[in-house]
């Protein structure tokens, strides 16, 4: 039995459940939240501000629609139809006046947390809205100083079938549910006399995980996802920012930084070999870096992939059982079993522990950057190959190039969910 370093008390899984106590062994203790150098985080957010994929990565955003299976395509289109009004409704929530009268002597933290849990959010915590993690194009949109971090649990059973359309459906369904419930949550905050701005889970205003970590709702896993106490990386995340009188939560050391170094299941099982084994300092934060260019092709062509979510023991069993097992045996619960580590890839078959698929190099060859950059690269290639002749034919190519670039630069922010032909 390992020596317990500290215990973390958290609310029960569902509203009204008994609290749980997580035993973090001394040997896994590092720091509350994440190891970071704040001055470096400041530097990178100032010099290289984060920007949304809807702006910076529009080329592969267009490409994914060309490789979806018919089933995924229809699923995504349906999601878009249902979700569009929910995302649109969130956009101007920061302008809506409070409906009640605020009492400056009353701290409304407990009222907000209780309401969030009653409405179905599995985790709720409060911290500063950290503008360093808000996307460049959303910085002036984000109005209020406090972030209410809200996590919704994605369904357990379908997630265990990932990568599959059965797992992908609930994933997007959760976004719709929580996006709609958050509008009610914001209405409630307004009855307390305060503003509430909904940061949609499908129109993210920034990188949310750092604020969830700061609010003590989990720690960053080697799979690049929030490992929350009850449902690990099955947590789907969003924010509501507010000017309400609240008290901030504090970051927590759940032992996950050291645990991931030992576990490594997601790193070993990733079909795209997109996860790094060792942590690095990235933008001032110590983390395992994901290689986007190796992940994106797998996600797009295999139903959102999510193998790294599915195989994580914290997701499957919960943090307390996993750490209790580790404390008693020194072993990672489920590691090496087909139940935890096995997955199917459509048309390729089943991969058990120790087995990974192979892809040829063309599989990873996808467009990168912005759509207009991609058009320029294509044009450049034609020029180098001597495919742009002098005369009217060449002029027509040039005009076509100009039209395409104008179309992209004038369309502004692209909705990631909408197929290009419908945008
Ligand atoms: S989604 Fe799939 S490819 Fe991407 S990091 Fe996770 S396991 Fe790897
Ligand atoms: S699978 Fe293991 S290494 Fe990966 S995030 Fe989960 S606990 Fe960490």
Characteristics:
two-stranded antiparallel sheet; 423 residues; alpha+beta; binds iron/sulfur cluster; 17 helices; single chain
Describe this structure in words.
With 423 residues, this protein is α+β, with helices and mostly antiparallel strands. The protein has helices at residues 38-47, 53-56, 58-67, 70-91, 109-119, 156-159, 165-191, 209-214, 256-263, 265-269, 292-301, 307-310, 313-317, 319-329, 338-341, 371-384, 392-410, and strands at residues 4-10, 20-25, 123-128, 146-153, 196-199, 219-220, 226-227, 235-242, 275-282, 285-290, 343-345, 349-351. The chain has two domains: 1-368, no CATH class; 371-422, no CATH class. The chain contains 17 helices and twelve strands. The strands form five sheets. The chain has a four-stranded antiparallel beta sheet. Mean pLDDT is 93; it is low at 416-423. The structure holds iron/sulfur cluster (2 copies). One iron/sulfur cluster (SF4) binds at residues 270-272, 274-275, 290, 295, 298-299, 305-308. Residues 270-272, 274-275, 290, 295, 298-299, 305-308 line the site of one iron/sulfur cluster.
């Amino acid at each position: 039995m390992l020596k317990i370093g500290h215990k973390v008390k958290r609310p029960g899984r569902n509203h009204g459940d008994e609290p749980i106590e997580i035993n973090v062994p001394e040997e896994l203790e590092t720091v509350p939240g994440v190891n970071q150098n704040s001055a470096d985080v400041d530097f990178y957010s100032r010099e290289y501000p984060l920007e949304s994929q809807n702006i910076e990565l529009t080329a592969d955003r267009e490409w994914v629609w060309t490789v979806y299976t018919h089933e995924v395509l229809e699923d995504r289109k349906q999601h878009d139809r249902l979700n569009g009004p929910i995302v649109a409704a969130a956009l101007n929530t920061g302008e809506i006046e409070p409906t009640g009268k605020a009492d400056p002597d009353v701290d409304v933290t407990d009222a907000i947390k209780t309401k969030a849990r009653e409405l179905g959010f599995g985790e709720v915590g409060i911290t500063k809205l950290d503008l360093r993690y808000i996307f460049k194009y959303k910085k002036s949109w984000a109005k209020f100083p406090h972030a209410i971090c809200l996590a919704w649990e994605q369904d357990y059973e379908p997630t265990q079938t990932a990568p599959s359309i059965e797992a992908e459906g609930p994933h997007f369904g959760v976004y719709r549910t929580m996006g709609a419930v958050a509008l009610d949550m914001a209405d409630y905050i307004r009855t307390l006399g305060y503003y509430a701005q909904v940061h949609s889970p499908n129109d993210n205003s920034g990188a949310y995980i750092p604020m969830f970590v700061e609010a003590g709702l989990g720690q960053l896993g080697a799979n690049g996802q929030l490992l929350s106490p009850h449902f690990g990386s099955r947590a789907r995340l969003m924010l509501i920012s507010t000017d309400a009188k609240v008290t901030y939560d504090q970051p927590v050391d759940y032992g996950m930084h050291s645990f991931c170094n030992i576990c490594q299941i997601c790193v070993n099982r990733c079909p795209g070999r997109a996860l790094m084994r060792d942590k690095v300092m990235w933008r001032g934060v110590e983390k395992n870096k994901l290689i986007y260019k190796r992940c994106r092709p797998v996600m797009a062509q295999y139903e959102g992939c999510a193998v790294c979510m599915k195989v994580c023991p914290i997701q499957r069993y919960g943090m307390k059982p996993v750490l209790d097992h580790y404390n008693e045996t020194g072993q990672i619960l489920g590691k090496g079993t087909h139940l935890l580590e096995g997955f199917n890839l459509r048309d390729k078959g089943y991969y058990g522990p120790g087995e990974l698929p192979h892809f040829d190099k063309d599989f990873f060859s996808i467009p990168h950057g912005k759509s207009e950059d991609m058009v320029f690269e294509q044009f450049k290639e034609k020029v180098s190959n001597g495919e742009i002749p002098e005369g009217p034919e060449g002029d027509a190519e040039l005009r076509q190039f100009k039209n395409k670039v104008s179309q992209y630069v004038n369309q502004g922010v692209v909705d990631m969910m909408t197929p290009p032909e419908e945008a």
